[in-house]
Amino acid sequence: QVQLVESGGGSVQAGGSLRLSCAASEYTYMTYYMDYMGWFRQAPGKEREGVASIEYDGSTSYADSVKGRFTISKDNAKNTLYLQMNSLKPEDTAVYYCAADRINWGLWPRYNYWGQGTQVTVSS
What is the mean pLDDT of the segment spanning 42-48? Predict the structure, then answer.
């Protein structure tokens, strides 16, 4: 069983930065269950959308809306996934979720394992 816990959300003014973390539980190891991981977000009244994804070899993909502003990374030794968010905009406001799977879903929200989400609010 893969258990993921996000943290690092909060409120920030436009132009600010936040770093989200997604920690795997102590009973979860960075095995093939987590070869592919991603960050997603969902704003009120909107569908969940892919923000960034990372593969087991470190290859990354980003939504066009966040390219150049967000960076996804992971620390296998700490069993933790990160999302560094810079130059935040009000339209980035959403609940952010991390996800993991053995299958490469990329930015498609079909991952098998999900965290509970963390709120990010960007004010103008």
Answer: 96
